[in-house]
Amino acid sequence: MATPAPASTRTARFPLGHVVATPGALDLVRTHGLDVIALVHRHAGGDWGDVSEHDAQANDRSVEGGTRVLSAYETRGGKLWIITEADRSATTVLLPSDY
User: What percentage of residues in the chain have a pLDDT greater than 70?
Assistant: First the structure.
């Protein structure tokens, strides 16, 4: 599998809509000084993070087919998910336990 390009050089593969975060995700980001914007850019650029190959392929199909896209990133504070809705109206940063 190819190494993803840095976030600053990747083009968004789909619209994000309104980007929001759950209180739990915001707390984790603040507590651990995480760059959540960089994670959102990775998600939009097609770097799905720590998902299985099967889920990565499903995300690739979702981008083309207009269904929900889920990325998972292991951070120093714990796992964060980023989900873009099928209609591309919203993208949510959340903890798995928030789902």
Answer: 90
CA–CA distance from 64 to each of 15, 24, 44, 68, 69 (Å)? Answer: 12, 31, 13, 11, 11
Residues 6+ away with beta carbon under 8 Å from 23: none
Q: How does pLDDT run across 59-95, given as a tens digit for each residue?
A: 999 999 989 999 999 999 999 999 999 999 999 999 9
pTM of the model: 0.88
> Does residue 8 surpass a pLDDT of 70?
no
Rounded CA-CA distance 66/61 in Å is 8
Contacts of 11 (CB under 8 A, 6+ apart): 45
Alpha helix stretches (DSSP H) within 1-99: 23-32, 36-45, 53-65
Nearest Cα residue to 48 out of 62, 34, 30, 66: 62
